[in-house]
Write a structure and sequence with these properties.
This protein is of the alpha+beta class and 576 residues long. The protein contains 20 helices and 24 strands. β19 and β20 form a beta hairpin. It is globular, with a radius of gyration of 23 Å.
């Protein structure tokens, strides 16, 4: 039996007893208990999920507990007042389910939502802060739907770890402390000011520092309502009323979110999108998620021998960057909410189409800026180029339970700190800023323009990969704004082409080309490669690239997890 970062204060004897009890529950269900594993951005969240799995809970049960805790301890990145995409694999039925909990624009939203009086787009900070950026949250109702189909333990039991933590307090992690300290607006916002700061004797505001203990009784009360009343505890009653009042009475750019918007929200169960890559099959969510663009990158690169190029060489970095340019160009042209816009998904993933795109790559020089391709579909070349302002935040976690079921879930409030508004102890999202700020470009309507009830395009890309025999092989995802797509694609290449361990794959230095400059992670070996990349014509932008990759892989020796060293998370695993 192996333990990593056990709950503070628990003895090996107590934990062993919990494992025995959990194993007995699995056996009562007619299944032999196997190892479970959780990789998330917070040790508190990982341990909350482990607590649920020890009691015999499913991967979805654990995901609910993990998300409830992340909303508390990582409020700058994700929360119950935000949105998420969840990919679930049921091993017994060999079935993949895709759950879309993306926020929607309120009924009062118009295409001019982020334009000033002269019709020019607002800056990101202007658009982000305040009520007009808040979309109708989707996480809670999506998790309810997933629990109805894959839950084992009672719904109310899944919130117990987060309620305890909210009442007893948690230690501020380094990332949260840094986010509070450098945020230019948070201390000026009502509620958030009192929660994230304390006052010195002379009245000055002092931001919460690493290791400080924060308690959130308002969030504990919200969780109790959700636990007792299910999704109605969030979308109806006092919690819903507080959210709406906060948005409509925001001190900056009040929004139109209404009780009717909350009542009307519905999560979507969508058909997963899968594509072959080498001997593997990679599955993800369809639009409006970013997963299809990951599949395009892989499909383009399948035409080249990345293993022969070797890991992180000048050649492999160049080819991956060029494939990213091509895929991001298609994404900016075609991808939006499929309930509002027809998207040529099948045509964009056709092997012949991706082979043609691959042939646009020149080994000796960059293409600088790629143009969108023309898939053999009636929708080709129909839209103007998307014009969003996408900032990095978000969180991802991966879970495999004792029955072999897998959750790969990416979750966000956008941000950091979303709209900077708080209600019910939660940060409210600013997800509407993922829409194109301009509804029309060069006389063509933009697919990702704002519309009432519409889901903004997302970069979140949770994936699950299967081996050549159809068995679960790996699951991965990441935060990082629209760089998520590049982070996930590179990590999959590291796993599937370069045979790296999960830990090594998530720790690789980052580089991403979103069809512009080639961004490389500062302080890494990639900086030494920059002069050679410039000789190939790449415009280099060296910067901090903050991901948060968390993944699990099956190996001949058992489960193997990886937690991104750039974040505060960990991997928890136990074997019967």
């Amino acid at each position: 039996m192996r333990y990593e970062r056990l709950l503070p204060g628990l003895t090996i004897t107590v934990v062993a007893l919990l494992v025995v009890i959990g194993g007995a529950i699995w056996l009562q269900r007619g299944e032999e208990p196997r190892a479970f594993m959780i990789a998330s951005a917070s040790s508190y969240a990982s341990e909350a999920g482990a607590e649920i799995l020890r009691k015999g809970g499913s991967a979805v049960d654990a995901a609910i507990a993990v998300q409830a805790v992340l909303s508390l301890v990582e409020p700058e990145s994700s929360g119950l007042a935000g949105g998420a995409f969840l990919l679930h694999y049921n091993e017994a039925e060999d079935r993949i389910d895709a759950y879309d909990g993306r926020e929607t624009a309120p009924a009062g939203a118009t295409p001019a939502l982020f334009l000033d009086e002269e019709g020019k787009p607002l800056t990101f900070l202007e658009a982000m802060i305040g009520g007009s950026s808040v979309g109708t949250p989707g996480v809670v109702k999506m998790l309810w739907l997933a629990h109805e189909e894959h839950g084992v333990l009672p719904w109310e039991q899944l919130f117990e770890p987060a309620i305890r933590l909210a009442e007893d307090g948690f230690a501020v992690a380094p990332k949260l402390a840094q986010a509070i300290a450098r945020d230019p607006v948070l201390m000026q916002m009502p509620v958030a000011q009192d929660y994230f700061y304390r006052r010195s004797p002379d009245g000055a505001l002092i931001p919460a520092a690493e290791g400080d203990i924060l308690k959130n009784p308002a969030y504990a009360e919200t969780l109790r309502r959700i636990a007792a009343h299910g999704w109605k505890g969030f979308y109806e009653g006092p919690v819903a009323e507080e959210i709406v009042a906060t948005v409509q009475n925001a001190p900056l750019r009040p929004g139109t979110l209404s009780l009717q918007d909350l009542a009307d929200y519905e999560p979507k169960k969508r058909e997963p999108v899968c594509a072959p890559y080498r001997a593997y099959r990679v599955c993800t969510l369809p639009p409006p998620s970013g997963g299809m663009t990951v599949l395009q990158i892989l499909g383009i690169l399948e035409n080249y021998d990345l293993a022969g190029m070797e890991a992180m060489t000048l050649t492999s970095v160049h080819f991956i960057a060029e494939a990213e340019k091509l895929a991001y160009a298609d994404r900016d042209h075609y991808v939006a909410d499929p309930d509002f816009v027809s998207i040529p998904v099948s045509a964009m993933l056709e092997q012949e189409y991706l082979k043609k795109r691959a042939y646009e790559i020149d080994a000796s020089y960059t293409m600088s800026k790629a143009k969108p391709g023309a898939p053999t579909d009636e929708h080709a070349m129909r839209w103007g180029e998307n014009q969003p302002i996408d900032k990095p935040s978000t969180s991802h976690f991966t879970i495999i339970d004792g029955a072999g079921n897998v959750v790969s879930m990416t979750t966000t409030v956008e941000g950091p700190f979303g709209s900077h508004l708080m209600a019910g102890g939660m940060m409210l999202n600013n997800q509407l800023t993922d829409f194109s700020f301009l509804p029309e470009v060069d006389g063509k309507p933009v697919a990702n323009a704002v519309a009432a009830g519409k889901r903004p395009r997302s970069s979140m890309s949770p994936v699950i990969a299967f081996d050549d025999e159809g068995a679960f092989y790996a699951a991965i995802g990441s935060p990082g704004g629209n760089r998520i797509i590049g982070y996930v694609a590179k990590t999959l290449i590291a796993l599937l082409d370069w045979n790296m361990s999960m830990a090594d794959a998530v720790a690789l230095p980052h580089f991403v080309d979103r069809n512009g400059k080639l961004e490389i992670e500062e302080g890494t070996a990639l900086e030494e490669m920059a002069p050679q990349l410039r000789q190939l014509g790449h415009m280099i932008d060296t910067r901090e690239l903050m991901s948060g990759l968390h993944g699990i892989r099956v190996t001949p020796k058992g489960l193997e997890g990886g937690a991104d060293p750039r974040r505060d998370g960990n991997v928890v695993t136990e074997e019967p």
